[in-house]
Each structure stands twice: as C-alpha cells, then as structure tokens.
Amino acid sequence: MSVAAALRRAAKLARAGDRDGAAQVYREVLARFPANPQARKELAALGQTGAARPAAAQSATASGTSPSHTGPAPTEAEFSALTQAFSRGDTDRVIAGAQALILRFPAHAPSHNLLGLAQAKAGRYEAALASYDRALAADPAMAIAHHNKAAAFAALARMDEAAASALETVRLEPAYAEGHLSAAYALLALGRLDEAQAHLHEAEANARRQPGVRARAQLGMGNLAFRRARPHAAARHYARAHELDPHNVEALTNLVLAQLAEGRHEQASATARAATELEPRNPQAWTNLAQCLLEGGERDQARAALERALAIAPRHVAALALMGRVAPPAPGTPAFARLAEMVASPDLQEADRAQLGFVLFEAEDRDGDPARAFARLEAANRMRRSAQPYDIAADRALVAAMHSTFAPDRPLPRAPRKPAATPRPVFIVGMPRSGTSLVEQILAAHSSVHAGGELMALGAAMEDLGWSPTEPGPPPDAAMLARLRTDYLASLAEIGTDRPVVTDKMPLNFRWLGFALAAMPEARALVTLRDPVATCFSNYRLHFTGGGNNFGNDLGDLAEFHRLHLDLVALWEQRFPGRVARVPYEALTENQEEESRKLVAAAGLEWEDACLDFHKVERAVHTSSSEQVRRRMYTGSSQAWRKYEAWLGPLIEALGEPAR
Q: Where does the record place Low complexity bias (predicted)?
C-alpha cells in the first residue's frame, strides 16, 4: 500500500471513531518512513506517539538516543530540529546538520543513523552504508541501523549483503516483525525459499496487532508460492493480504498475475480494474489491466491502458515492453530514442535493459533492415544471458536421468488403480513457439474441452517429488505416482470446470511426460513439432518472462536443447505407445481439416466441426501467440527466419538441418 493510501485509510478510521486503529496505521507508516510529517502530526493529534513501536523500529527520526547510548549527546531540541527538517524533505540541511552534530558528538549513533537515512533518501546509498557502519561502530546493538543497511543494500541490488544485515537485525530484535519481513524478501530474491518462508511466518507471528505488516507477510507468502509454481496458493495469500489491508494495491496487482497463471482471466480482469480504481496513479495496475485486455483480444483498449501507465511513469519497463508488443516505436522517433537510451543506461538493471532490447529488435525488424535488427537481437540476448545465466549441462543430465529411469529394460512403474479422472488431462507439449497455442485453441472449440492454458501444476508436483529442471530426483514407485496423481488432479479440480477434458499446454512439460502418463493412464499427450530452424529462431527473437526459457538466449544452446527435446519425445513414444501423438505444425496449417481430425482423435475425443472454426472461440490466451490464434489458419510463419539466414549459419549447422 502506498503512503498516501495508508494515510487516507488512517483518516477514515479516525473519522469512524476507531482511534486505536488509526494510530496503528500511522505507526506502520512511521515504521517505514519515520519522518513522514502527516503521520507524525496526526498521531500526535490522536494523543499518541510512535514510542509504542518495537525498539528496533525506532530510527534516529523517532528517538533522540539509541537504547544503549550513554555518552555525550545533542540536546533533544537540536536533534528534533533535524528530524523535522528530514520530515520536510530538506535533505541537504539534514546532511549538513547531522555532520555538524557528529563533529561534536562523534560517538552518537543516532546522528550517524540519521545521516545515513538522509543520504539514502538522496540516492547516495554507498555513503548511507558508511554512515550506518559508523552508527554500529558506536552502538553495535543498534538494530535499526542494520535494518536500514538492509534497505540500502537492497536498493543497490546487493541482496546477499541485504540478507545478512536483515538477519542481524532480527538476531538483535527477535520480535521485530519488520526485520523479519526485510530478511524474508532478501532471502526470497536470493532463492533461499525455505529460509524466507520461516521469516515470513515469524513476521506474521510478531505482528498480531499490525494488519499492515501481516498483509505484507501474506504478500511475501504469495510471492513465495508463485516462485514455487503454485499460483492457486499464491492467489489465496494475495487475497488474504487484501482482506487484511483493503487499501494495499500491491495485493491486487500480484493477485492479477496469479489469477492469469491459474487461467482465470475474467477474475484477473476484474481484479486489475479494481486495482486501477484503488490507486489510479499506479502504473503497474494499468500495465496489468493492459495485459488482461491484450490476452482477451482487446488491443485498442490495452493500448489505452498502457498510455495511462506511461503517462504516470514514462520509464516503467513492463509498460514499455508491453507497448512494444502493441505498437513498437519506429526507428528515428523520439520514443525509439528514449528506449535506446534506457537500454544503454548502466543505471538500469541488466534484465530490464534486455527486455527493452527485444522491443528495439521488433521495431528494427519492422523497419526492414535485417543487419541492424539482428545486431539489436544479439545484444538483447547477450544481456539476458548475463542477467540470467543458463547451463545446458543441467538439461543433459535430466535427459540422461529420464533415460535411466524409463529404460526399455525396466518395467514401467504403475500407480495404484483408480477410477478414471474427471476432468481428464490432455498434455500439449513441445518446444516453445512450436504451435502449442494453436493446437490448444483447436481443442478449445470442442464442447468437451476446457482450455487450461499453461498450468504450473505438473512442474510443482514434480518438484515436490524431488525432480526439477536442474536436479534429477529419485526413481518413481507406486507411492510417488499416487501422490503425483492426487496432487495434479486436485489442481485441475480447482479450475472449476464441468467439462470432461482439460488441456494443459505448458510446453516444457515434455520433460515430465513419463511420470505424468504413468501416474494417469487416462491422460494423453500431443507433441507439437515445427520446422527446427523456425522454432529455434522464434525462441531467440522473443523475450520470455521468468527463467524457464533461458536456453533460448544462445543459438548453440537452442540447437542442443531442441535435440534433447526430440530425444525425450522418442523415449515417451517408445514407453507409452498410442498415448503420445506428434502434431506437425506445417502440415496442420496446410491441411487443416485432415490434421485437425487426427489431433482431436489423438486427444481421445470425437470429431466436431466447430474445431475448424477455432478462431471464433472467445477466451483469453496467456502467451505471445494470443493474437495469432484468433485468426483463421494461415501458412508461412515458419519462413520468418529467412531474412536472417545470413546470421543463422551456426544454428542451422548445429541442428543438422538443411535450409528449406
């Protein structure tokens, strides 16, 4: 929740006669922004002070001395004058005044801490860190200085050090809920998920009367669940955060993403609109609404929402990237120049620069200069590789483990007999950009099918069994398969459809088909196959969210990953005959009815003519193919790489594919 929204909420509570509730909200604002003048004024008007906050939350702006400070100190009036200047935003005066106090009282830790706060507010984070260190040299038990250090390290994206400082905060003040939150968010950024979860629980346990803090703990739990590919659980946590703090717009913006991942587009759209109404000046709220509109096929409305976002925050990366899909800026225009400046700026995180670099490529691609466009594309992929490294060795090891686990001379593991599942899953897998969205759209036109989209459930269930893309797990036995079946089907039940078949078109689930088909004998799998060069180039030219598709940032990795995926598909065809069907993309686009009939039959369904009018199906599509699947069948998309053939020689050679 923004400060403005928190202050509005507190005022409303006060007007309603809930003075204690209003005071608590003002204290929560001061815990985050100790010098906020309105919060301090209104809290005083209520006849209360910030002294009721935990000791660790007392910054130099809230108290004149550190709890353990016993040496010479400035008068309360001197120190108060600086805190008031801080509250007015007079950062230069605070810095000068704090430095003057430090000359007189070099061991006065609160003065060093206040200096650090002012320096951080001015964006001088390195100087702030030095000031916090001097505060701690004077008073090693000053937990708030560690807390402030954690915030400065986080602002510098130095998350290892942020986590260490936050952990020291809660070592000194174990009951400080804000400190646990700081630790949890830093640990989450580092991927230390179990530790982050423990601190989130500690934050909530120590914030029984602080609904705002509890809401942020629930937000963290939602983020944790989303990282673990559990959008249903994430949505529950975000909804709970919103219940605890109805003015917390971040709870709504995150809930939108979880609902989209669940395939609940209508709910996501409603939540996105609610977020824009709650905080009309929030650019992420408008960007999320644009995402929902675009996935629903409402391109013009999506553009209008993005224009609102960018009017608020012209350098908002997510909005700029999505606008690049809707209306890429033409080279030579001011909008293109601004994007190019951002991509070249060292002040922007490399992952953000990469994302905008793909927008520049799309703009150059439309402009018709392939040499210049490919240079942009190479640069964007190079930045993304640096920001999110990928090692093909992990996928080699995973494929080898699958061959060992499902070797032809080993009997297939079997789950205990169960009644046929309703709904029955149909997995649509393959390389990303190989036609999975088109195949799902064809099946979505069938009266017996609910299109589930890219469900995270199978990957999450496999992780619970000890398998991940980077770490093979134990061989399956009957108990493991029974658990996989139970967990996966439970996630399908949460979709809430009454149709007997649900499609799951998470492309990279081809990794887990052996487990899924063994656990669910009623399941079927369709594997989409497209021209290898076209498939790999399509991956190379697109920016994917998350790190699951990072093999696509290097042409050599792409070629090898493509070969590994074909290797696994062949293994599943051998071990599960009649249940894994190949769907050739080019043949499907050229012989629509014949190939559509084949794939519908392979999914275990009777033919319906409506499957030929797939483009008329009204549903949201949560992939980069959201616009293509709303057109009639067309051919030629597999030739788009041709104009870049001069730069794709290493890819073509590595694939072993003649240029066709």
A: 47-68
